[in-house]
Specification:
The complex is a heterodimer of chains A (about 100) and B (about 260). Helix content of chain A is about 20%, strand content about 20%. Chain A has about 100 residues and is of the alpha+beta class. In chain A, a hairpin with a 7-residue loop joins strand 1 and strand 2. The N and C termini of chain A lie far apart (about 55 Å). The model of chain A has no long low-confidence stretch (mean pLDDT about 85). Helices cover about 65% and strands about 0% of the residues of chain B. Chain B has helices spanning about 5-25, 35-65, 75-80, 90, 100-120, 125-155, 155-170, 180-190, 200-215, 235-250. In chain B, helix 1 crosses helix 8 (about 180-190) and helix 5 (about 100-120) packs across helix 7. Chain B is built from 10 helices and no strands. The chains are: A alpha+beta (about 100), B mainly alpha (about 260).
């Protein structure tokens, strides 16, 4: 008998209309449909969501932790890329 | 039968099946096959417990209309003996393996959903209101248990075998789902209660379709146990109640 574990799924939940789906965690499920149901029960019990995405964890390609320096460090020294040099009118929210 | 007395009995039947099944599902806490199932199944149990509370609360109010006082939720749930419980025999059956639990759930969920759809149209506004709230939860329960019936039935040889055994073993308790008792019949005329015998064709259609998809055979044994509605139970209820009621029996009225 195959006693291997169910595949792992990454769960993304949109908490309100207009916001993007956000990664909330992962879980095991035999297939995508059950992953949605499990996500509903594990991650939306307290009214957290209006939409759920599930993605097989195996489908995600990630950056290698060892490549941190060449990938991310060059951005550290380039403060002019942050739009912090402009005065913002108080009335403008959510910039 | 006095209409308020009948209404009280009817509400107790609705509450008792929810409560007893919730207790059974609660027994799975910490024992689910995987963490996700453990959470999902006990969520279903909590939904049913919430529904039981609504029915009990209303039952207590109705009881006060023909008795000096009406009992509260705790008194009704923890203060009655087995013979005074009117739950379906199906829901008091032991959890067994996961196939047994899922088949029990599936038989019940499909029936429960059809019942609530009917009760949403009850002439008793309070019953209609509770049914509408419960229906949303139970629609999900029925989808979820149908999913498992299909996956386990159409799964490995081992899971198929266990599912067919559960389908056959629990079948005898499903006849009772469609036999209206005296309390229900007294209320059907006024449009308060649902005549459950009318739910059978839709229930069978759905069971036939899902079991076919699950490559499982629908039993053709006609023999059906009944008695839950009149307080005659299988030997399993007493043990369940002993566990469920022990705290309130030991410390009556205890609060925390």
């Amino acid at each position: 008998m195959d006693r291997s574990e169910w595949p792992l799924w990454e769960i993304f939940i949109r908490s309100q209309h207009g916001l993007a789906h956000k990664h909330v965690g992962s879980l095991h499920a035999p297939d995508a449909e059950m992953a949605i149901k499990n996500a509903r029960d594990v991650y939306t019990r307290r009214n957290e969501g209006v939409s759920i995405w599930v993605v097989p964890s195996a489908a995600i390609t990630a950056t290698a932790p060892g490549a941190k320096e060449p990938l991310f460090e060059p951005a550290n020294s380039k403060v002019y890329r942050h739009p912090t040099f402009f005065p913002m009118p108080d009335a403008v929210k959510h910039i | 039968m006095h209409v308020e007395r009948a209404r009280f009995d009817y509400l107790l039947r609705l509450a008792d099946s929810d409560l007893i099944l919730a207790q059974r599902l609660g027994e799975w806490i910490g024992h689910g096959p995987v963490l996700e199932e453990d959470i999902a199944l006990t969520n279903v149990g909590l939904d049913l417990l919430g529904q039981a509370r609504l029915w009990f609360a209303y039952a207590g109010e109705v009881e006060a209309r023909f008795e000096a006082t009406g009992r509260d939720e705790d008194a009704l749930a923890f203060g009655r003996d087995g013979g005074a419980f009117h739950n379906l025999l199906l829901v008091e059956q032991p959890n067994g393996n996961y196939a047994d639990t899922m088949v029990r759930q599936y038989y019940f969920d499909v029936w429960h959903r059809l019942l609530l759809v009917a009760l949403v149209g009850s002439s008793d506004a309070r019953i209609a209101e509770i049914a509408a709230k419960a229906l949303k939860e139970v629609t999900y329960h029925a989808e979820r248990s149908a999913d498992w019936v299909v996956r386990l039935g159409d799964g490995t040889d081992l899971s198929h075998g266990k599912m067919q055994a559960a389908i056959d073993a629990l079948w005898m308790y499903t006849g009772e789902l469609f036999v209206p008792d005296a309390a229900a019949l007294a209320l059907v005329q006024q449009g308060i209660a649902c005549d459950v015998s009318t739910l059978l064709p839709a229930w069978r259609d759905e069971i036939d379709a899902i079991l076919a998809e699950a490559t499982l055979d629908v039993p053709n044994t006609p023999s059906m146990y009944k008695g839950g509605g009149s307080g005659v139970h299988t030997e399993h209820l007493g043990h369940l109640l002993a566990t469920m009621q022990s705290m309130q029996r030991t410390y009556p009225g205890a609060q925390w």
